[in-house]
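Quick note —
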Amino acid sequence: MFTGASNLAEGVDKAFLFIFIIAFIFIIGISAFMIWTVIHYSRKKGREAKQFSGSMKMEVLWTVIPTILVMLMFWIGWKGFAPMRKVPADAMVVTAIGRMWEWEFVYSDSLRSKELVLPINKPVKLDLVAEDVNHSLFIPAFRVKEDVIPGYDNWLWFTPNYIGDYEILCTEYCGLLHSAMVSKTRIVEQEEFDRWYEELKVASFMPEHEGLKLLRSTGCLACHSLDGSKLVGPSFAGLYGSQREVVSGGSAKSVTADEAYITRSIYDPNGEIVEGYARNLMQSYSELLTEEQVGIITEYLRELVEGDGQKEADL
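Predicted structure written out below.
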């Protein structure tokens, strides 16, 4: 009767179904009793009013029955919850990192992926780490959800039962793009997982630009995309050398996104606001980034544009 995408889904579904059935019976029963009472005891001509006193039988019934039902709810819920805190010894360990506003998954050998790829029928433990504010990792199909809190060691585990793609959500409000903090769990056969893991190893040998590391570590990529998509702030894609329409001092003007413009945008972000974006969303990074670091970021943004140009030339 009960099936789920993980080994833990059955226990959660049984508890939910039991509580739902009890609540449904009570709401129907109470509503029916109220209607009957209103009709049966309504004021009518020729009927003498009566005074009712307490009933020991009723007192016992509405004390004992709810107590039994609550204890049953607790027992069924406990049977579903207890396995969630018993991790198998052979579970694969993956670190799930939550940051505004994305998930990242770190496998052994420090291999990083934006999606959670797992082999079917193999238990996995997710160590939960928050790099900024409170988050909450929720995989609805697997019926698992745990808070991801800075400085707090927390985890969850499950065994995926079916091949497929499943949503990963954040269920703790964490800022403007909380609703966009989504990722994917991809469950595959062991052979496909092994191939994907080897490809991840090969990709990891490519050195990451220091400018990209700075953008990531300072939280810039939470508000500015690298692929042209619109977030809280304008995208970094095609930024360097482009013409930007900005509002400064109440008037609009066009500026070139050169090194000077990028430096001004980092140290005085509200001095020139790109048209279509709100003011006062970004604070100055003058105390977080040195001039040398800003230069490294500028160099990365320049190479980003040149790299896209080279790709077009190759095509």
